[in-house]
Amino acid sequence: MDFNFIREYVPYFIAAAVLTIRIASIGISISILFGLLCSIIRYFRIPILHRLIDIYIELSRNTPLLIQLFFLYFGLPKLGIVLSSETCAITGLVFLGGSYMAEAFRSGLEAIGNSQIEAGLSLGLTKSQVIRFIVLPQAISISIPAFSANVIFLIKETSVFSAVALIDLMNVAKDLIGLYYKTDETLFMLVSSYLIILLPLSIAFTLIERRLRHAGYGN
User: Fold this and answer.
1) Distance from C-alpha of 124 to C-alpha of 26, rounded to nearest angstrom
2) pLDDT in tens, 163-179
3) Which of 4, 106, 120, 194 is the most exposed place for a label (fewest CB within 10 A)?
4) What is the DSSP letter of 63?
5) In terms of CATH architecture, what is 3-215?
């Protein structure tokens, strides 16, 4: 193991990790909001919209992110729509992540009994108040395990962003291996980078889930 090589090129991985975290943060944040909206539309079966959401979820979940990125980066310019690499990456992550988040939240929503909704309405709450104060707090707590798994999954999916010319962790690793043939050292830095990003998240989500269970939510 060439530690001098590692010490020299660690800054490149740090810069790539910052880019990866920034894009993942934006994409996942939007996908959470979009997924929540989609799950509510499906749960209440809003006419026409819930059918469109069903089609979107099936299309998104059954096509690889790499193919989606190719369509955005190479296909849309044929139609006169040119997106930057970062915009393509964020859009692709939202398109894929929104469907997974929608399914996670839907499982939480469907775990809430109709009797609770009916009780809220009978107390004089509006439908939006029932959703805000009764349904969503319980549904979100129930969805935490699936939600946390989706967040980690989407961060790992950022490894394909190099296909659209983003200088992410995988792109840096491939370039260093191609230039210097330092495979062991480069893969060590690559794996370490993903561990540094993902391990604290995994621990944090585990603690959050335990705290919610201990408080009695999601049971």
Assistant:
1) 38
2) 887 888 888 898 888 88
3) 4
4) S
5) Orthogonal Bundle (1.10)
